[in-house]
Every structure is written in structure tokens, then in C-alpha cells.
Amino acid sequence: PLQQHEEVNILLVGSSDPRHILKTIEGFEDTDRRLHIWVIENNMEVIARQLLLLYLALEENGSIHRKAEVFLEVFGNSEVRSETWEVVRQAAAQLCHYFRERDELVRIFRTWSQSCTLEGSGSVSIPRAWNFRVRQHLGTRYDARRGCFDWDLAMKLHHRGGGVINNQQYVGWREGGVAFQMREGVYQTTNTTLLSKRIFTNRGGKGAVTGYWGDIVSSPYLCFGVETPDQSLLQTQNRVHIKTAQDISFANVQALLQSLTSRGRQPASSQQEAEEALAHIPTPDKKTFSQFFHSIYLSASLAHQLGSSLRQICSPGAVLVMELARFLLDLSADQERGFEEKVVDSAKAAGFDLWTPSDPDPTHAIFTLQTPPTPDLQLQE
After folding, report:
1. Residue 170 CA from chain centroid, whole number
2. DSSP string spanning 174-228?
């Protein structure tokens, strides 16, 4: 159905990071049509972080190797090298100029560009914020956390498609939030792009608390590090993977960035790419966006948004991609199946048909918008 339109409009709801945007740009080969990607997130810090990562991926300067390293550090580490943070500061300063008419974005970018990330500077300590989340998640099991981490990896992640993730890297990330260490160096500079505000109710009132509210269980390795077209990276020896999820992540990101710069058009300004790739819709207006989107992606955390309102903003023949609970490790196998069944039922009730490809993906369910029945025409005298 996308071939019938001069423009392609895609909506990402709760995607949290720009990997879907980058992969879509990479695979969009029709230069005769314009691609517009819209993003909805629950706070502006996540929008700003996506813009920053897009900028880092699409900027012209620097080698592909260096860009891949910086991208992965900012993408998956709670703490980065000081030289990586300097790149972030410079990028954030540039983004302040690009989005100067959007006050909240400018405030966030300015905070990043001026942040010295030192203890006592007024910024939130991400090691403490991370540890708070781990303690909150494990409760009385905190003192036995190493065993909990080992169990989650061996009995959950490895059984759900993450077999290439090794124990040392996964446990290191669970302990402190640092997933990618591709260079020798000191990873002690707070990655404040991971911090955001969340509203909490306390003593009858509501207040915003700044902290780290992202993933502390599944790991960033799932995004780029468990699948690859290069089968040599998945080879094993004595049933142990030779390459790590970090190695695969780096190879995949490097290939992605290389592809983006070799698309037969000028990579041009990161400003133009970012502005075309990402926009923020606080609340989609049903009238303005009626039958507007050709494809919609909905994260598992926002499955409750799967309702008739989505149908109203879908163009005829639109595709809906719904993230499933495959990597929500705190769910049992029965709960995972129950989640999928509920998603399918909700989608059908909203007017979507399940599409089952020959090689189904256990991490997503794909639906197409039902074609309304043609009304019977009666001749009138």
C-alpha cells in the first residue's frame, strides 16, 4: 500500500531510541517519495536523546569506526570516557541552534552541553541512580544479586534468543550500567543523556524526580548485538561463542553507519536529516491526522494504547507493528503468551488483521488495517 502514496508517514510510539529510525532510513530506497517519521514519547528528555543519537550517527565528520564507538557508548553506557562526553557536549551545543524555537529541547541540550558531570556539580549521580533501581527491583534479593543476574542470563535471555550475550559483559552491565567498552580507558563520566524526569505521587502531592528510569534487566545488547547477517560472528567453539554481543553490536552499527553514508546521496547536514527524521507530537489530533499514517510501531509498554483511536489515524492498508513481551524477563512463559494473546485480541477489536509471515518474528506481531466491507448498492427509482 505504501507505493500508492507520494509521501510515507510513519509513527513510532514509545520506541525510546532511534534504531528503528536509522534502519528505516537505511532501507528506504525510493528517492521519489519523502519519508516522514513521527515520534511520541512520555517525556522530552527521551526525544532529545533520540535527536542527539541521530546527530551522532548522521554527522559528516570523523571515521565510521570512531562514530560507531561513540554512538554505542552514548547509546548503552551509564558512564562514558571523557573524550566521548566532549563529543556529546559539542553535538548538544549544535542542536541548541537547530531547535532554538523549541524551548524545552533547547533547555535539555544546553544542560548537556554545559554539564561537567562531576560529583558535587549539582547533577544526579548515575551510579547512585542505577544502584537505587537495582535495589528497588531485587528487594531482599539484592545481596544475592550476582546469582540473580546469572539466572536471568542463563535461564531467560539465552533461552529467548540472546545466547551470544556472555556472562562477564552482562553481569558487568547489570552491576553498573556500562555495556560497551571498546577502548582501554576510564569510563567514569556520567552519561546524563540517560537521565530523565518521572512524576511520582508522594504524601498526596505529585512531583517530578530526575533519575535513571530505563532498562536494568534486558540489556542494550539486544538492540544490535544478537543478530547479524555475518554468520562468522556467530561461530562457536566448544559450544561457546567466539565473538561477544559487544563485537556484534559494533560490527552492526559500523555497517549501518557505512550504509547510511553510501546511499548515493550527500549525507548532508545532520540538522536536515534529524529534522526530517524526527518530530514530536504531544497528542495526535484525530482530525488533523485522520488516515495519515501508513505504518505505526507501538512498544510493549504502551500496549494499552492499542485501540480504535489508532484505526482513525491509519491510512487504508496501513501496517501496525506491535512489540511483544519476548524480552520482558520478569514475565513467565505463560504471562508472555497471555500478553501476546491480549495484543492480538485488542488489535482485532480495533480493526486490524494479524499478518503471519513465513518466518514469524517472536519479538513483534504485525497487523494490517482491515479493509471495510463494500456496502451493498441498491438502485433507486
Report:
1. 19
2. HHHSB----SSS---EE-GGG-EEEEEEETTEEEEEEE--S-SSS-THHHHSS--
The C-alpha cell at 117 is: 558531570
Per residue in 260-269, is it b (16+ CB within 10 Å) or e — as a string? beeeeeeeee
> Nearest-CA neighbor of 6 among 24, 25, 32, 38?
32
C-alpha cell, 296: 505505526
Residues 6+ apart with CB under 8 A from 271: 94, 98
Residue 94 in grid coordinates = 549544535
Q: Name the residue among 13, 15, 47, 31 with its Cα closest to residue 313.
A: 13
For the chain, the farthest-separated pair of C-alpha atoms sits apart, in whole angstroms, at 85
Tens digit of pLDDT for each residue in 15-34? 999 999 999 999 887 666 78
Q: From 322, 314, 352, select the one nearest 339 (Cα to Cα).
A: 322
Q: Which is more confidently placed, 379 or 181?
A: 181
